[in-house]
């Protein structure tokens, strides 16, 4: 008797991680500082969404600032973990998305790559990526984050006829804080 195959939308989405950036590997660990940050600083609490818990703000403002860091693109987790890059693309090379865009076509494009850069304390953590279509979560995967200051990684999903529609990829910290969200569309084949 044959084993039943799960529908395409229920099949697992794959993730792969890459090495930390060279910049992250050579920097020394930060020592927490109690100093306040000016509104123009990349560690200013004014960059965080309203309602961010005080403990998350404190962890964020005490994170060291790397030379390639940018402003957070979404929320911040309890450890100060946040994303400063998030994009989708058709390809992946040199730790970056290639052919960046939000439209993917069945029988033309192989996969959707969700590429992001995580900034956090030098401790091993994980983030989750929720793949949602039409507002319904279809798959949740965990992506490990190496204990470096900045870590660039991705998750990917095959493009197939069973996955057409409007999608959202949401990256969350271990405590459930939304670190970033990006939308894209998978369209049927062009005739």
Overall description:
With 191 residues, this protein is mainly beta. The longest helix is centred in the first third of the chain and has 9 residues, at 54-62. It has one domain: Macroglobulin (MG2) domain (Immunoglobulin-like), CATH 2.60.40. The protein is elongated. Strand 2 (82-93) and strand 3 form a beta hairpin. The strands form two sheets. It has a five-stranded antiparallel beta sheet, with no helix packed on it. A five-stranded mixed beta sheet has the order 4-10-9-6-7, with no helix packed on it. It has helices spanning 22-26, 54-62; strands spanning 14-17, 82-93, 96-100, 103-105, 111-119, 125-133, 136-145, 150-158, 165-172, 178-187. The N and C termini lie far apart (38 Å). Residues 1-12 and 16-35 have low confidence and may be disordered.
């Amino acid at each position: 008797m044959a084993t039943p195959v799960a529908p395409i939308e229920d099949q697992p989405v794959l993730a792969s991680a890459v090495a930390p950036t060279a910049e992250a590997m050579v920097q020394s660990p930060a020592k927490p500082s109690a100093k306040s940050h000016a509104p123009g600083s990349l560690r200013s609490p004014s960059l965080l969404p309203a309602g961010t818990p005080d403990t998350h703000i404190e962890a964020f403002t005490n994170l060291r600032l790397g030379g390639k860091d940018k402003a957070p693109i979404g929320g911040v987790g309890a450890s100060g973990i946040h994303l400063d890059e998030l994009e989708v693309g058709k390809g992946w090379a040199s730790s970056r998305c290639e052919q960046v865009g939000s439209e993917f076509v069945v029988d033309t494009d192989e996969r959707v790559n969700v590429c992001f850069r995580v900034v956090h304390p030098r401790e091993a953590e994980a983030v989750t990526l929720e793949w949602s279509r039409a507002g319904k979560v279809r798959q949740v995967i965990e992506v490990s984050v190496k204990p470096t200051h900045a870590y660039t990684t991705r998750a990917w999903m095959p493009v197939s006829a069973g996955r057409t529609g409007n999608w959202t990829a949401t990256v969350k910290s271990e405590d459930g804080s939304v670190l970033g969200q990006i939308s894209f569309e998978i369209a049927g084949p062009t005739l």
